[in-house]
Every structure is written in structure tokens, then in C-alpha cells.
Amino acid sequence: MIEDKNQQRTSLENLGEFGLIDHLTKNFDIKHKSTVKGIGDDAAVLDFKSKKIVVTTDLLIENVHFDLSYMPLKHLGYKAIMVNLSDVFAMNANATQVTVSIAVSNRFSLEALEDLYAGIETAAKIYNIDVVGGDTTSSTTGLIISVTAIGELNEEDIVYRNGAKPNDLLVVTGDLGAAYMGLQVLEREKEVFKVNPQNQPDLDLYSYIIERQLKPEARQDIVKLLKDLDVKPTSMIDISDGLSSEIIHICKQSKVGCDLYENKIPLDPQVISTCEEFKIDSTTIALNGGEDYELLMTISQEDFPKIKANPNLTVIGFITEESRGMHLVTRGESRIPLIAKGWNSLSDQE
Ligand SMILES: [Mg+2]
């Protein structure tokens, strides 16, 4: 589907590992004072003075987490950084550094890796983070990308998953389900392309949901917004596996229950229309779709006046005593127990 317009193809074998790292990272500059030494020695040296540090890591594997037949390498590099930054922001921290390691087979050319690193560089520039290390090695099969992200914050600003209290409001950023529906469209077009390679798909109708799948943005702006509004959530988590399983993580770790209102779940019109086209229930997609990289948080009732007019934040329910359990209150006002499905299991559903 995505044609390789770059006809030049330089084999990786001619470069060797050291030449390759140097080549791929030569444009990366250092932006943070906390980076004392970046790439170029045995290890990076970081100095955070009296701040607390958060560290998170994610592994992305070809044909498990991404499909290169519709995922351009530049987007993949960008997304690999976003997936990790999202976890840093979910701690209410400021992301500062990342390390990036890749394993590649000789099916990839130098030009392909340059595209991947161009995406990483763009993410580092926009999100103001330093790339301070990494490794490249060979793989006998597909592409593997491992990113570790580091963030800093003051101890009193840390937000864990376990601080939700009964009567807190359940709040979500952005809208949900778009990344999963974008994936459904891309998978469908891939099958069409297999049958008829001349077919040029018209994807204009799906531009928002495809962008949410191929080029997600981690919510750095929300960490700043919460600070500006003087709101510290009582708990927070990023939505990587779907709203349902993230709510369950917060409730179980905080030892509370919740009522989530179906009619409050924010959905983009393109998600609604694409769900209708695919004959899938949009609430199911928002609950279990995954890869939205929005933030789910709980906020004390006292802070409601500070957030209520903000278009980035939607109240979708409230926290209850643990003994009340975790429920979805449907449009028809029945209470259905919330279950964690995760987006992989969606393929098994009827
Ligand atoms: Mg997470």
C-alpha cells in the first residue's frame, strides 16, 4: 500500500554497528541541563538534583505491535516515542530523556532506518526530549524497537494509580476508540490491496481515525494544563489497552468501585460513522479498543469548578465504595459490570 519512493538502497553490512549509531544519531541535539552526557560514552550521565525520576520502557515487535505494509517507518519511529512518553505523562511527570534500541534484519536498508530515526528525531524535537543512548543489533526476522523513557517531577506532584477515593470524578482527555477504528480501516484496505494492487484507496473519510492509529500524540499538554488549573488528580493512568481495563486498574489499585456513564464517553463523529459502517458498537470500541494514548484520571469533587469548562477534559463517571463494584451505566440506565477485554481479544468477539 505504501510505496517505497526512495529508490536508493544502501546495505547495512557496509556500515558496521558503530558507524550506524553515529550516522543515525548525528543530528540529535541535547536540550536538557539534566543531560550531562548523552550519546558517545559507555553510558549517559544524568543529573536531576533534588527531583524524583520516573522510568518506563516498552517493546514494539513487527507483526505483533505494528504492520509495515501500512505503517510508514517515520510514523513508527514517532509512535514508538509517543507510547513511552504517554506513560511518563500518566505519572504527571515531565519527560526529559529516552534511549532507543533496535534490532533489524538485512531486509532493511540504511535509508529505511534513516526514515525510522527521522520520526524519532521529530518526536524528540516536538516533545523537547533528549535521545541519550541506544543500541542497534541484527535480527533474523522482523524489526524490534525498544524505547526507555525518563521523566522528572517534584515528589509532591507524583500521581499514582492507587489514590482514587469514593465520590471522586472519573475524567478522561480527548476522545476514545479512534485508533482502533483507524486500524480496522487500514486492515480492510490491506486486504483490498492484496486482491487488486492497482486500487488506490480513498481514505479522506477516515483521515482523523487513521492519523490516531499511525501518528498518536501523547498528552504532554495535559500535564501542563493540570498544573495551570492547579489540579492534582488523585490517580491517573494512560489509555493504552482501552478505557475499561484502565478503569479497572485504577479501581483495583485504589480499592474502590465506579459508575461509568455510557452517554458521557467522548467519541469523534468519524468513530461513530465508521462503527456504523463496520456494524460495531461504538461503546464497545471505546471501552476495549486501545491505543488511544489519552489520560484517565480521578479528580476530587472540590476541583470540579476548575475543570468543568475545559474542552480537553470530560467527566465520564464517579468513584464509589469498593463494595458497590465497577459498572457501566448504559443509555437505558441498566448497570453492567465492567470487564477488561483488552484490544487483542476484540478479534474473538462475535
Ligand atoms: Mg500505561
From TrEMBL:
Mg(2+) 1 binds at residues 57-58, 135. CDD domains: ThiL. It holds the Pfam family AIRS. Mg(2+) 5 binds at residue 241. It comes from the Bacteria. Substrate binds at residues 65, 291, 343. One of its GO terms (biological process) is thiamine diphosphate biosynthetic process. InterPro entries: PurM-like_C_sf, PurM-like_N, PurM-like_N_sf, ThiL-like. ATP binds at residues 117, 134-135, 161, 240. Mg(2+) 3 binds at residues 42, 87, 238. It catalyses: thiamine phosphate + ATP = thiamine diphosphate + ADP. Pathway: Cofactor biosynthesis; thiamine diphosphate biosynthesis; thiamine diphosphate from thiamine phosphate: step 1/1. Mg(2+) 2 binds at residues 58, 87. Residues 40-152 form the PurM-like N-terminal domain. Keywords: ATP-binding, Kinase, Magnesium, Metal-binding, Nucleotide-binding, Thiamine biosynthesis, Transferase. The keyword Cytoplasm does not apply. Mg(2+) 4 binds at residues 42, 56, 87. GO terms for molecular function: ATP binding; magnesium ion binding; thiamine-phosphate kinase activity. Its EC number is 2.7.4.16. Belongs to the thiamine-monophosphate kinase family. Catalyzes the ATP-dependent phosphorylation of thiamine-monophosphate (TMP) to form thiamine-pyrophosphate (TPP), the active form of vitamin B1. Reaction mechanism of ThiL seems to utilize a direct, inline transfer of the gamma-phosphate of ATP to TMP rather than a phosphorylated enzyme intermediate. This is Thiamine-monophosphate kinase.
